[in-house]
What does this fold into?
Amino acid sequence: MESAATTVAGTVLSGSTLGRDSSGRITEKTENIGGITSHYAYTYDQLGRLLTVTRDGALLEEYAYDNNGNRISENNVLLGISRTLTHSIEDQTITAGGVTYQHDPDGRLLSRTEGTATTQYAYAGTGELLSVTLPDNRVISYINDALGRRIVKKIDNVVVEKYLWSGLTTLLAVYDGNDTLLQRFEYADDRVPLAMTAAGQRYHLHYDQIGSLRLVTDAFGAILKEIAHDGFGNILSDSNPALTLPLGFAGGLHDRDTGLIRFGHRDYLPELGKWTAKDPIGFAGGDANLYGYVGADPVSWVDPEGLAAMIINLGRPPVTSSYTNPHGPGQQTFQVQPMGTSVTTTHDPDTIIFNDGSVVKIPDGSIIVITDSSVINTYEPSDIEKISPLSQLIDSYMNLPVKFGPRYIHDPAKEFGGPVGRGCK
It folds into this structure.
């Protein structure tokens, strides 16, 4: 069991105790929010996909999946939803109860229709979401920078928010269209901020185990906002909608107008538990379902960038990669076969272990190119534009249907900069 608690002015405002199985999946959670304690239990199928959520013994959520991880039925008590879903052979959702979805030829979500209300989505040639036209004819549009980060949001072509980032996913501040500071965020050593300053007032931010915002309090511990999500990120309740924050489910950038959540390179649709577009690195992302979100276990895992570290084995013998699961049974290993790649969507690899027993430590978030049986080159993707789209890293030997087209990496050092990390050639 693992426990965490947040205290303000000597009062415990939020806390949880988690229980996990041998694979690191959360099976139970006792949560204290604002002095109210609830016990949650979670069950999974043999592939680790979330099946049920109960609270204090009462069923809240129930899901079933097809062989490729698509949700085929759901029962959500708090949302009042009980429906079946259908999907295309390419894992695109066609219907969910009375809602229908259409996708463009590149597999991106094009429209959502419920009754006479239709929402339309438009994309750039690179696949980034550019605009959403809502049923009331409002147009929500975005501007992204060269790194793919969302930096401007417009409503009917009027700038309403600007976002300042550090790296790909660390939101530092939000400004209005006149460059007036609206919100500034403070971080410690986590990927989500611990505090926010807005209109001269400092707020404390409290989260659950995956980084979803649960409470906003003032400096004295008074609760100003309480928000709850279901297992896949749908908002169940919000005690103070007027106090708006851009931080949403699992720490993503939440658009309160569209309901979408931006994680790094892709947009997530909570109502389906899916991305709106295919994984830009194709099947190298480690999931046979290119729209799947964290293997359908959003209780235990997160994917803050929509991407992950990559190992490319250009050598002949297989090599072993080890990684430490921060929520599971410690260090685990998997093999990367010759002329193959591997991506882990939840952890960066810690080491590469060669057949001769030599071990090389891997910097977090790195691109690892193995050139023979005992030598690797490691490249730190600190400038994401150097490796965007990541699908370009996939070698032609993989014969994968990647949209941008696989290609051979003739000179990794020239393309991605000099190698970094101890023991790297």
Summary: The first helix runs from residue 412 to 416. The chain has one helix and 35 strands. Helices lie at 412-416.
